[in-house]
User: Which sequence fits this backbone?
């Protein structure tokens, strides 16, 4: 009964009684707090922990865990540089190369000059797949390199809030540094 006024006379017998009826459960946003700059994978997907082999929460592990569960997540990043080091291409599970996102997630850095995600020219930085709804805020995306969408390839929905996208290269100049193929991209603020 979302959006409807509840009847205070639950049995319509003239006695005030709240009709609680059914309710809609919205799971709370799950928050992953990244505590390692390593570029390592989640060792146990869908356990809600996002831990690598050393029991650390990495950016890649948090994205993989977020992809493995329904609902919305938030990934909090500390100040520092996250260097992508997992070499590999053409997979969409975030095991190698770029950070593939398939679900609903907010990735929040400590500040656009303080939190940096650097692909080191190995691959693009982010691949936002068609099922994804992503908000990136307070961070820098740099040194992505790919034929299409050097910094970010957007097939789903992306919002950038206080984000710097710099020093990314797309081989095919018609497929810019941020390439939005189908859905929505929104820039809330920029430098």
Assistant:
């Amino acid at each position: 009964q979302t959006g409807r006024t509840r009847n205070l006379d639950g049995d319509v017998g003239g006695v005030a009684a709240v009709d609680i009826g059914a309710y809609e459960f919205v799971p709370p946003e799950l928050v992953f707090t990244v505590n390692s700059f390593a570029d390592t994978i989640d060792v146990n997907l869908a356990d809600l922990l996002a831990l690598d082999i050393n029991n650390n929460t990495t950016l890649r592990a948090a994205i993989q865990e977020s992809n493995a569960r329904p609902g919305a997540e938030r990934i909090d990043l500390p100040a520092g540089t996250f260097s992508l080091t997992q070499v590999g291409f053409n997979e969409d599970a975030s095991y190698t190369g770029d950070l593939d996102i398939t679900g609903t997630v907010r990735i929040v850095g400590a500040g656009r000059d303080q939190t940096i995600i650097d692909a080191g020219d190995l691959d693009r930085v982010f691949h936002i797949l068609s099922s994804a709804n992503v908000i990136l805020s307070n961070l820098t995306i740099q040194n992505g390199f790919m034929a299409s969408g050097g910094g970010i390839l957007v097939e789903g929905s992306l919002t950038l809030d206080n984000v710097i996208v710099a020093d990314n290269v797309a081989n095919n100049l018609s497929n810019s540094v941020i390439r939005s193929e189908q859905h929505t991209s929104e820039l809330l603020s920029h430098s």
About this structure: Residues 182-186 have pLDDT under 50 and may be disordered. The radius of gyration is 20 Å. The helical segments are 59-68.
